[in-house]
Amino acid sequence: MRQFNVVVLGAGGVGKSALTVRYVHQIFKNEYNPTIQEDYRHTVTVDGEPCSLEILDTAGAEQFTNLNEVYIQAGQGFVLVYSLTQEASIKEVDNLRRSIQQIKGTETNIPIVVVGTKLDLNNEREVHKNTIHNLASRWNVPFYETSAKRNWHVTDAFDDLVRQMRTRYPHATSSPRKGRKKAGSHKDGSCIIM
Fold first, then answer.
1. Which InterPro entries does the UniProt record give (predicted)?
2. pLDDT tens for each residue of the chain, 194 residues long
């Protein structure tokens, strides 16, 4: 199994926690309770390969910008979340994406997925599909439209991120046949998503 650190980032109130809890626990949290920081560990199998994921669900980006730098430095993969019902939240995702690139410096192919939430609230939608298509091609990152409430495309987004991290960090795996640890792997062979 592989081990990765993944960070969930986005503006306050966009549905980061609902998305993460739906993915990890398969439940929907209806009430909004602002998050400071929540850590989740989740074992998942993607394409027949098991991973143990450590997911760090952060506070709204505008509330704890200094902490975000620490999270980004430690992160190997990033879920950038915006709400399809709040056009301003997509601008925060762009700011976060730029911060990741700046903090990671010379790193290339940084594993990122951009996730729009609240797809079930189509009548309240403010972020149009044309906007998303344009940004996806300009930023060269995958975009997913999801609903934590209806469990639409949540797993697809996280699975995509796991695939990207496997490609970007191939050394993060241990060889069970030789019983030796490669650089970047942990004794328990788990995947961490922060």
1. P-loop_NTPase, Small_GTP-bd, Small_GTPase, Small_GTPase_Ras-type
2. 888 999 999 998 999 999 999 999 999 987 766 666 789 999 999 999 998 889 999 887 555 566 678 889 999 999 999 999 999 999 999 999 999 999 998 788 999 999 999 999 999 999 999 999 999 899 999 999 999 999 999 999 999 999 999 999 987 653 333 333 333 333 344 444 44
Residue 57 resides in a domain: no
Question: Residue 88 and residue 11: Cα distance in Å, rounded?
Answer: 9
Please tell me what DSSP assigns to residue 109. Answer: S
Count of structural domains, the chain: 1
The residues near 60 (Cβ < 8 Å, ≥ 6 apart) are 10, 11, 12, 13, 14, 34, 35
Q: Is residue 75 part of a domain?
A: yes
The CA distance from 22 to 152, in Å, is 10
Round to whole Å and give the CA distance between 93 and 99.
10
- For residue 124, report the phi and psi dihedrals to the nearest 5 degrees: -105, 5
Give the sign of the dihedral formed by CA 157, CA 161, CA 162, CA 164.
Answer: positive
The enclosing domain of 15 has a CATH number of 3.40.50.300
